[in-house]
Amino acid sequence: MSTTPDSAVHAYLTAHRDTFLADLADWLRIPSVSADPGHTPDVRRSAEWLAAKLTATGFPTAEIWETDGHPAVFAHWPSDDPDAPTVLVYGHHDVQPATRDDGWHTDPFEPHTADGKLYARGAADDKGQVFFHTLGVRAHLAATGRTTPAVHLKLLIEGEEESGSPHFPDLIARHADRLACDAVIVSDTGMWSKDTPTVCTGMRGLTDCQIDLHGPDQDIHSGSFGGAVPNPATEAARLAAALHDTDRRVTVPGFYDGVIPLTDQERALFAELPFDEAAWLSTAHSHATLGEADHTTLERIWARPTAEVNGISGGYQGPGGKTIVPATAQLKLSFRLVAGQDTDAVQQAVRDWVAAQLPDGIRHTLTFWGATRPCLTPLDHPALQSVVRAMGRAFGQKIRFTREGGSGPAADLQDVLGVPVLFLGISIPSDGWHAPNEKVELDLLLKGAETTAHLWGDLAEHWHTT
Amino acid sequence: MSTTPDSAVHAYLTAHRDTFLADLADWLRIPSVSADPGHTPDVRRSAEWLAAKLTATGFPTAEIWETDGHPAVFAHWPSDDPDAPTVLVYGHHDVQPATRDDGWHTDPFEPHTADGKLYARGAADDKGQVFFHTLGVRAHLAATGRTTPAVHLKLLIEGEEESGSPHFPDLIARHADRLACDAVIVSDTGMWSKDTPTVCTGMRGLTDCQIDLHGPDQDIHSGSFGGAVPNPATEAARLAAALHDTDRRVTVPGFYDGVIPLTDQERALFAELPFDEAAWLSTAHSHATLGEADHTTLERIWARPTAEVNGISGGYQGPGGKTIVPATAQLKLSFRLVAGQDTDAVQQAVRDWVAAQLPDGIRHTLTFWGATRPCLTPLDHPALQSVVRAMGRAFGQKIRFTREGGSGPAADLQDVLGVPVLFLGISIPSDGWHAPNEKVELDLLLKGAETTAHLWGDLAEHWHTT
What we know:
2 copies of one chain form a homodimer.
Chain A: H1 6-28, H2 40-57, E1 61-65, E2 72-77, E3 86-92, E4 112-114, E5 117-119, H3 127-144, E6 152-158, H4 168-174, H5 176-179, E7 183-186, E8 198-203, E9 205-214, E10 220-221, H6 232-242, H7 264-272, H8 277-283, H9 297-302, E11 306-315, E12 324-325, E13 328-337, H10 343-357, E14 363-372, E15 375-376, H11 382-395, E16 400-404, H12 410-417, E17 421-423, E18 439-441, H13 442-463
Parallel strand pairs in A: 3-6, 3-7, 7-17, 8-16
Antiparallel strand pairs in A: 1-2, 2-6, 4-5, 5-18, 8-15, 9-13, 9-14, 10-12, 11-13
Helix pairs in contact in A: 1-3, 1-13, 3-13, 4-12, 11-13
């Protein structure tokens, strides 16, 4: 099996670029916000749109898979070589909430292109990165003259990733036979930068929760009662503040249990990357770094577990002042987890810790929205080399290694299907995931398609030699 | 000068009760919320309504006094005895914010009477307690046959008390000559209970502020950046949490400077009151007491300075989760102050403390809404005895002593006018100041009027003997 000719791939991509982008824009117009019950019909519409598009792409099988929450999409295009390896591509079709009021310059669900960038909620996270696979597999066929892919190609595109994938473990357990594969390719991550293409070797896990605190049965006068009864806003603040010690380490007992420490090799590889703190801060729209003592910024975001306050509220928030002790307060917390941590154990540790912090007179409820397990691919895994070679051809550069601070349900796939998980993402830090004015770079989208146009041949060729 | 006959006072109050209550209801319909700029015209309308009503009551002088904020009302009814003492009654015509959504059973600005109680925002705090003076002075005249009050009677009813009286010191300084008096009567406080009438001997001061914290320039992804940059919601929580130590003492350096400690006599008087913790908690709509170590609940709310979180907000507050590091957070804090504390010094201490707490990368602004100074009347002050006697006649019971945890600009009057400040309030703890379903007890409103019907004669009689 020979490698796919570059020129034929380029010709195909050039010829189909405009149609590809117009189709992607249609998909981005569907506000598939999984966290907001008001958008439930839109998440289903997004799944149906994708299934129809995969059928049109040529997948003989393209199905909606129901869950107890939002639906996923499964597609399968078998190779005509029965001995070919089977690859499962993972992505998601749901998106984060977005409204103009958050600071978007244009409607987040009306894609617009400017200066080589496509702006829309989901452009990078993750519709764009799912969608380049449709163009990539067609380019692979066109450039090789094949009628089926060189690998048995499966896609599983879920609809609840932005809500912590609560039904994903059940989904893949139920369909484990149809999802059977030799490797998973996750396309829901990023690269170091436009100029430094990288392959990601692991993702952090995530579990997030909401804590509702109840003090007085109604707002009460702070002069008549303040200083003598528990204040739920104060207690919410004390919880949030007590999450970290002065070294910004998480204080929840047992939180760090099992954490696989960074090796000297990994710390050295991180340190080799061209990290520019000022540029990184600019991408983070932030004005200083702050995090766990004795760790670099990259170590903090890639390889260390963290706790974050995503939202806090309680009491009067209108103009001026209102001298009350509020009746209620609310805290939204998320915990990023790394390989070795057990999500169930972390949730229990948080529950125990919260209950132990609160004084008499404050009732609370704690709801975890979901849990996504961390995962880590060994640096020397042979299948990783196929991804590195395919990316190297598309980008014409040496490919380096990173990890991903964000989270995806990759570890569930790894555990349930018993196969290695590889990462192929073309997003870059400035793409603004979860933020206003999310975008994707058009040329990188096409490099993603080009990488997969090379990848399936490379994997098929090298699989049995590894 | 003989004392006012009880029967004549009763007859007057009975005959004029319905008109009095109907007039009060008209005033309560004006939503004079001083903290909300949207209600600025209503605060003015409230002042104009009151001035017209005082003119109708018989005050030869009833004027709107402008400030740089909301207007106050001044009225003057000289006695025909030039040697009579001059008394200045203080109250306020502005009210706390209130909407049905806060938990009101009926429209807060559409008064309704049920079971001997009048429900409306401002019914007790403070329109009801201002308004009983109009009925009381007429009863005083009717029962004594006088055509002018036995004292030179002045009223100053301000429009910014619920906003911390930011322009009150300037107002009284500008008009000090017209406000000149021998004593101030503040009608903006409460009694121990319906069954235990009391005179208040001091009020706590108040200063409240808003702190806005700015971290990232926009909300950012907590997976990509969380754990490596400062989070303003976390920092708001850390500020709020750091306000108190584990003994619930305020940690701001210098906060307790100058505090006049409780005497053994005062602690004993507090301890003699029939304090029922379960009943008090019920009134507080709370489920446990919590406050400064080594102090009783009454000491905490009456005689100790406190810090309270009135509101906190930052980040995502919609349904479900959103894994962000938020761009901004906000904290609304109030500080109750006691005699001996300097409000300017406390504000500066808070400013210094906040600035010292925040890490690099978090910008902040801090705005104080205003300051109300604490005040304390000596237990043995002779003018206090007139109030105690007049209340004793109206209530037919022994009058005991309390303090007031809430705040009013009494100390400014004391300082600028150089006179003692006395307190005459008929509200009770269950009246729900600043809370939903605020109400006033109709029979206590009339006891307030009855007290003043006796008070002016008693003061005139005893003034020159003290």
